């Protein structure tokens, strides 16, 4: 097993470090060399078929569900198709309104999760066409769907998903752009901007991993916290959900993600000294609002760790620590912001002596209901 970990103490840390390669592999052959468009040969949808899509449902469990929430922001923004995201165990039992004009996207690293597979079958029974996003070639969801887009993350062993999530995000961008190209919802320049951003992601993740020691250093101060809140707006909120799940899964700390604008509707009552707040601030159209939210939690004596783009020096004045990430397109930021959150969860869990790769009561793949 030590050999399989390639010198890392845990599979999770190894897999966090494998992300630049996993992202490169997932992008490989799917971006035009001149960055003018994405190529998704496996989709083979005619422009008519794409135009017929009136609504998209994304359904999945756990981390894959969180990738789906990012997918909603991305697909709605790029392709202007309404997207609903549903937890697979809810979708399958709640009589969803779907027909032949609905595209159902199931996301599953293993391709074998019982609830996700049941949701896929339910969607097909109701006449929807199904696209599977999975990491395992020939898995059940891959076999039963109408189309498959593979994530090329390689085997993921740690229960807490890392490289599967970031590659699922990449597929959401590719899908959003593919649909946008077919429906003509973006200018050539807008497509190029996102494609260029995608191409830069692997090296940018490498740059963040280069700051690992810095993150490991300050995390020790917060490892004793028993309540952590993750705040963000827009896509940052979707990533906050995944950051919160990572921390819960492996460190057993109570963590919650909140849309920052919702603070005043409840969570603020829980913000007191000793609470740690992880504040994601990469969405520039709501940056000032996010900074006001951060000031609100700081004023109640919470410790705040902020994540923002390099060059946003203002944030440092309102928080205890800042983690800077390379600047990218507003939609692709998710792939970068999640990396420090993965490292924080990992080092907090290690500091607390937890079994990082095999957290209590959890399984890598849940094939029974
Ligand atoms: C389990 C794992 C999670 C995973 C979820 C969905 O709960 O512990 O890490 O996100 O299943 O798995 P899937 O293979 O369908 O992506």
UniProtKB/TrEMBL annotation:
Residues 46-185, 218-359 form the SIS domain. Signal peptide: none annotated. The gene is glmS. Homodimer. The keyword Cytoplasm applies. The keyword Nucleotide-binding does not apply. It catalyses: D-fructose 6-phosphate + L-glutamine = D-glucosamine 6-phosphate + L-glutamate. GO terms for biological process: carbohydrate metabolic process; fructose 6-phosphate metabolic process; protein N-linked glycosylation; UDP-N-acetylglucosamine metabolic process. It comes from the Bacteria. It is found in: Cytoplasm. GO terms for molecular function: carbohydrate derivative binding; glutamine-fructose-6-phosphate transaminase (isomerizing) activity. Its EC number is 2.6.1.16. The active site is at 364 (for fru-6p isomerization activity). Catalyzes the first step in hexosamine metabolism, converting fructose-6P into glucosamine-6P using glutamine as a nitrogen source. It is an enzyme of class 2 (transferase). Keywords: Aminotransferase, Cytoplasm, Glutamine amidotransferase, Repeat, Transferase. One of its GO terms (cellular component) is cytosol. This is Glutamine--fructose-6-phosphate aminotransferase [isomerizing].
